[in-house]
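Lay summary. Proteins are chains of building blocks that fold into shapes, and those shapes determine what they do. In this project we predict the shape from the chain. Here is one chain we studied, written as its sequence of building blocks.
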Amino acid sequence: MARISCLAFFLFLLLSTTHPDVVSGKGIKLKKGSKSGGSARRPIKLKKKGQSGSASASQKSKPIHNGPTQSQVEQMAAMPDTPPPGSPPTPPPPPPETDEAKIHITAPPDKSTVAGSSFDVSIQISPVNPDFFTSTYNTTDSRICISLDGSSYNCWPVFGGKIRYINAVDGPHSLHAVLMRKGELVASTITESVQFTTVEDPEIGSEDEDKEDEGEEDEIDLDKEEEKKVQIDMPMLSLTVPPEKVTLPGTSVQFVSNVVTGDMGTFKEYFKYQFTCYNVDLSTAHACWSIFDENVVPYITHLEPGLHTVEGVITHPETRKAIEETAFETRTFFTSGEKNEAAAVVVEVDVDEQTYSIPVAAGGDATNQGIYFCGARGILNEECPGFVAQKIMNAANQF
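And here is the predicted shape, written in a compact code that computers can read:
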């Protein structure tokens, strides 16, 4: 008991010495303004604005760069604009306003063999500006023209119209195509020449030919299930333009023909998708144009100046071959050339206060020339053909 009392007294003395705040054993007295459990807080001393503590003078004057450097600015200016994420893609720049185009012959394939004497020509056109190209070439004086085996150019509309040849002679052939713009061939569009061979042998390629016929929607399909036979009066092709022995200015000719038949309704039903085909100057094949498409007019250009011949037939709805019985008699006509080099005389004629030059080749028919001249210009005056013919004969008699 005495030991415990001594120990308690010793602790009391120790606390009294270490903590002067303790004045009695009744409790702990705190200094005025202090918080329970700790000493009084001292105020926080802050440095004045602009002071940097113990930093050196050189550190105080060093500039601070918060933005990009001049070189970085130049690099960013040279970089292409990048749209922010989520924004719509930037549309490509509009194509240049040009009617330039590349054309390529896709059929017949180069170095191929064609079974039979008929073939179609397919051409792929790749314009730089499709809209501008269409506005330029969707006109009556713009065409796609083909030269077969070095002959004159047979021409079709750029938009629409199947290009077909029939009665091709057996053997090798070559062809190339070119665009015509406003009546002139565009040399920059001439394609590479395609080489192929036609073989009149029913056993070669007959299976492929049958498949081709099945896929053609423009060929008439007779009722084979009931084996019906349709009897049609033999149609005849009649050529009205150009008339016999007429001289045409320049180097081009346009053919106008009529079909003569006893039953036009039946003919249209079964020949709706057939062709009239023309062979100029005994070339290696007949070029064909649709019979009933008013926008497709047979047109041949780059004929040599001088005398020419033309033959014409109608194709059969089932065989796609020529119906020889429909042919008209061989027609002759002349072309004067670009400088009238094939004209024997050039007659000046005044009609409706306008002067026309009429080139006439040696051997030309003055009467038909007058009929053709007045009809081509829509002159309905009955005296016009005779007046022109008389002028031509008077000029010819002077030589």
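What the prediction tells us: Residues 348 and 354 are 10 Å apart (CA to CA).
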